[in-house]
Write a structure and sequence with these properties.
Elements (H helix, E strand, L loop, with lengths): L12 E5 L5 H7 L8 E5 L2 H9 L5 E8 L3 E2 L1 H8 L5 E9 L3 E4 L10 E4 L1 H14 L4 E4 L3 H9 L9 E4 L1 H7 L2 E4 L9 E8 L11 E9 L6 H10 L5 E8 L7 E8 L5 H13 E11 L14 H16 L2
Parallel strand pairs: 1-2, 1-3, 7-8, 7-9
Antiparallel strand pairs: 3-4, 3-11, 5-11, 6-9, 6-10, 12-14, 12-15, 13-14
Helix pairs in contact: 5-6, 7-8
Bound molecules: prephenic acid (PRE).
The site of prephenic acid has 16 residues, from α1, β3, α4 and α5.
GO molecular function: prephenate dehydratase activity
Pathway: Amino-acid biosynthesis; L-phenylalanine biosynthesis; phenylpyruvate from prephenate: step 1/1
Protein name: Prephenate dehydratase
Amino acid sequence: MTQPPEPRTPAGRWSYFGPAGTFTEQALRTLPEAASVEAVPCTTVTVALDEVRAGESDAAVVPIENSVEGSVPVTLDELATGEPLMIRREMTVPVAFSLLTRPGHRLEDVRVVGTHPHAEAQTRGWVARHLPGATVVHATSTAAAAAALADPDATPLWDAAISAPLAAERYGLEALATGIGDNAEAVTRFVLVTRPGRPSPPTGRDKTSLVLFMRENHPGALLEILDQLATRGVDLTRIESRPTGHALGDYCFSVDAEGHIEDRRLGEALMGLRRICADVRFLGSYERHDGKAATIRPGTTDEEFNRATAWLARLRDGA
Ligand SMILES: O=C(O)C(=O)C[C@]1(C(=O)O)C=C[C@@H](O)C=C1
């Protein structure tokens, strides 16, 4: 019996990379269901995902990729290892940064700045020009850097935070400068993750995420992997290697491909990968944030695959 598709966004308790005021919280709030779920901030991406694994949360929202600084390694690695999880949705948020302090502070007073490493990378130029003598120290998130300044009786490790403008309101801080990102177009991509289940039906504008573990390193090993996708007309939107953690030089490939697991060309490519890889982790098929339809090359439509399958069956039958 065919199982009904899992709801794309389960109701209930959703963990997110917090505390309140992160870009991740903003990403969660862009989803229509946000108003009806209990959104629970977690200190790290690992904690947010582990809550889902443990069944304490129904879903988690975590950052996965920034247009300036690239992937969020902790998210890629957490999804590649441990109890499997599944990506259900992706969404993007434009990231604009402010320099926040306790009320009454001036730019000249800022000696130490706290922020998330990804935010530091995106504001490096501004900090070098406006705070050349300042030291930047890393906080668990941009909002955690702001939250540390919120209690006037505490002695935080920094005297200013680089955070989302939203964090100023949340923590009663003042913005000494706004729009301090080096790239005004910066965008971060976030994913909504649940425990594995049946993927939602294809929309024609889908993406599939995979982690591919090579059998052994040999000349052309990556080429063989890419060939499985290329010959079926599957376009990749992202590929990067990550260490497996087992040994030096032991890498896996984190891949996003156009299309849905229900698409014939993607299904065939997956079977090919299963045959040649040591392991293939399917991280989900979900609707693309940009609504772009998959590129379909001649000879790779579902219908053409079906016709070829029927033709082979006829040959085998001697028809
Ligand atoms: O610290 C936050 O506010 C986050 O949501 C994390 C994060 C990231 O991991 O890239 C998200 C967007 C910005 O690029 C900076 C930090």
